[in-house]
Design brief:
mainly alpha; Peroxidase, domain 2; Peroxidase, domain 1; two-stranded antiparallel ribbon
Length: 719
């Protein structure tokens, strides 16, 4: 009998947090990381090309509109001192500042600040207002400017409008359309949880958990009040140094960015944070997507509450000048509390003319303030010397800041060839990993014959090409085969690259590259292709692996050795290797690597199966080599993996035996990175496809397509 008032649709079954079907089995391998930003979530369609749209953009008109926007204060969210510069810079900074070198994730390259969790981080209070203020400009220019580009450009124009000569700007950031769930922001379950859980030893900032770069959940960098909210500038200095280093910044860049970021704008804490309502991700429907609303007291202008600290850093907060260092060095500073109850530093006996005016009432002057991180700039000995240098030479400070700001806002964009627009600097920078253009005009057919007759094995050729290309990270477009940096330090000595074997292969391929006037980068990849074609032929398949010449060879002088250290592989499921035993399982490590390479779950599956039978395991181990025809590109890995002839049994940490049920003999050995393709229901479904009797040709075809994708992942010039 139908009940009165019964709703005919499900109640929250798939729309509430924690309602996913896989939550029933929390230990199951979650493949969602490989389906992030599925094309079905992109409203622009598969034929949309942002780079083509950029060619239509009237950059001068856009910049003119942004300059006008900075001083057109809106009543619903008025600009401090009638200028939105400080707010726009904070928005751009917090968009770009999440970048970290360890995995290349974070940063402003995708416009992800629009979505949770970033749009609701405590450190991003009221940045939803900044984006909403920009909406009329985004609406006007539409598809010709991405949110990702617009947010960073707004920060750039803000600095220019206040007097800074910026270093340049590059368009080219493409928007995502859902949260980037592949980014690990920490394991804490509460905002601003104490820092202790992120460090092995809080007194040793370098012991912070990798790949994290912020000291607490919900912060971009450090706590402005001090470590765990306890003021101590010297202690804070160590944490500032570590967080900025994890963003690829040295001491000079760190001081410049800290000072330059605090030369303009202000902090907001003239009220009670308890009056702020839910964050954007939790706000009621009537808030129209905005968060931190204050319906209890006046919440704008002078009475805005964001960080909880209250005041401007400089006397003239809408002007680019050297006022930050002027105040920092001129006065002694005492620890005080803001109206919101936050610790901040204020000058002792400051002259009235050095006090900034109120954001709304220009007849009222208020004390400037500094954070604990600001005080670190004169308390830490190294930072102090740099600060003195900047104070004595304002032009030098401006130049260093402009370059550091450019690096901050472009670090995750990859090579300079990915930049678009009239303001891209002509100067190429070492952190952009420059690679000269390579020769495309050489006898490819004869070169392939020479490689095939070189005496190198299929395993040697394929392994070397893979090792050269596998460093690519789609997170920040670094690494990859272009440049042949595998022959240079530090890569040539990486344990994962098997230095002895690598040098043997390079000693064969380098003379061949010289003979044909081809780059070594091209020859390494081509050798891998040749190896695959030989292996396919041995398996009874005719295969032609696509190849696009034109890679160049990077120089030692233009290779920043230190910056490449985070790209060193400590695991590679595709070559069945982990550097040591980790708490994270081998299959989870493999998923993370596959996502950085831009692979789908089935591409990862077919690559692993092919690499195993080609004999490319690190150090020549036989784990997962489920074939008696090693070196032939067969689907034997999948055939034997899905064969119920074998029973699987543990044989040690990350090791298993495949034992014949009838004879009791161990036929194969395996790791978790092998057997997951037969145990996980989704991966097994893919494995069964490739194990079918009629899908040998499909396996070869799909393997070559996935291989080609990895080999060309860094070839922006082909897209």
């Amino acid at each position: 009998m139908e009940q009165s008032g019964t709703c005919p649709v499900i109640h929250g079954a798939q729309t509430k947090v924690g309602s996913a079907s896989m939550d029933w089995w929390p230990n199951a391998l979650n493949l969602e990381i490989l389906s992030q930003n599925d094309t079905k979530s992109n409203p622009m369609g598969s034929d949309f090309d942002y780079h083509e749209e950029l060619k239509k953009l009237d950059v001068d008109a856009l910049k003119t509109d942004l300059h006008a926007f900075m001083v057109e204060s809106q009543s619903w969210w008025p600009a401090d001192w009638g200028h939105y510069g400080g707010l726009m810079i904070r928005m751009a900074w917090h968009s770009a500042g999440t970048y970290r070198t360890a995995d290349g994730r974070g940063g402003g390259g995708s416009g992800s600040q629009r979505f949770a969790p970033l749009n609701s981080w405590p450190d991003n209070v009221n940045l939803d207002k900044a984006r909403r203020l920009l909406w009329p400009i985004k609406k006007k220019y539409g598809n010709q400017i991405s949110w990702a580009d617009l947010m960073i450009l707004a920060g750039n124009i803000a600095y220019e409008s206040m007097g800074l000569k910026t270093f340049g700007f590059g368009f080219g950031r493409t928007d995502v359309w859902q949260p980037e769930k592949d980014v690990y922001w920490g394991s804490e379950k509460e905002w601003l949880a104490p820092s202790d859980s992120r460090y092995e030893d809080l007194e040793n900032p370098s012991s912070m958990e990798n790949p994290l770069a912020a000291v607490q959940m919900g912060l971009v960098y450090v706590n402005p009040e001090g470590v765990n909210g306890k003021p101590d500038p010297l202690k804070t200095a160590g944490h500032v140094r570590e967080t900025f280093a994890r963003m690829a910044m040295n001491d000079e860049e760190t001081v410049a960015l800290t000072a330059g970021g605090h030369t303009v704008g202000k902090m907001h804490g003239n009220g009670s944070a308890e009056n702020l309502e839910a964050v954007p991700a939790a706000a009621g429907l009537h808030e129209a997507g905005l968060g931190w609303m204050n319906h209890t007291t006046r919440s704008v202008g002078t009475d805005t509450v964001s960080s909880g600290l209250e005041g401007a850093w400089t006397t003239h907060p809408t002007k680019w000048d050297n006022g930050y260092f002027y105040l920092l060095f001129k006065y002694d500073w005492a620890l005080k509390k803001s109206p919101a109850g936050a610790f901040q530093w204020e000058p002792i006996n400051i002259s009235e003319e050095d006090m900034p005016v109120d954001v709304e009432d220009f007849s009222v002057r208020k004390s400037p303030v500094m954070t604990d991180a600001d005080m670190a700039m004169i308390k830490d000995p190294a930072y102090l010397e740099i600060s003195k240098k900047f104070y004595a030479d304002p032009d030098y400070f401006s130049n260093v800041f402009a370059r550091a700001w450019f690096k901050l806002t472009h670090r995750d964009m990859g090579p300079v060839g990915r930049y678009f627009g009239p303001d891209v600097p002509k100067e190429e920078l070492i952190w952009q990993d420059p690679v000269p253009a390579g020769n495309k005009s050489y006898d490819l057919t004869a070169l392939k014959v020479k490689i095939a007759e070189s005496g190198l094995s299929v395993s040697d050729m394929v392994s070397t090409a893979w090792d050269s290309a596998r460093t690519y990270r789609g997170s920040d477009m670094r690494g990859g085969a272009n440049g042949a940096r595998i022959r240079l330090e530090p890569q040539v000595g990486w344990l994962g690259n098997e230095p002895e074997r690598l040098n043997k292969v390079l000693s064969v391929l380098e003379p061949i590259a010289n003979e044909f006037s081809a780059s070594l980068a091209d020859v390494i990849v081509l050798a891998g292709n040749v190896g695959i074609e030989i292996a396919a032929k041995l398996a009874g398949h005719k295969a032609d692996v696509p190849f696009s010449p034109g890679r160049g060879d990077a120089s030692r002088e233009w290779t920043d050795i230190e910056s490449f250290e985070p790209l060193e592989p400590i695991h590679d499921g595709f070559r069945n290797w982990v550097k040591k035993d980790y708490t994270v399982s081998a299959e989870e490590l493999m998923l993370d690597h596959a996502q950085l390479l831009g692979l789908t779950a089935y591409e990862m599956t077919v690559l692993v199966g092919g690499m195993r039978v080609l004999g490319t395991n690190h150090s020549g181990t036989k784990h997962g080599v489920f074939t008696d025809r090693e070196g032939s590109l067969t689907n034997d890995f999948f055939v034997n993996l899905t064969d119920m002839t074998y029973v699987w049994e543990p044989a040690g940490f990350n090791l298993y035996n495949l034992r014949n049920r009838e004879t009791g003999q161990v036929k194969f050995t395996a790791t978790r990175a092998d057997l997951v393709f037969g145990s996980n229901s989704i991966l097994r479904a893919y494995s069964e496809v490739y194990a079918q009797d009629d899908n040998g040709p499909k396996f070869v075809k799909d393997f070559i397509a996935a291989w080609n994708k990895v080999m060309n992942a860094d070839r922006f010039d082909l897209s």
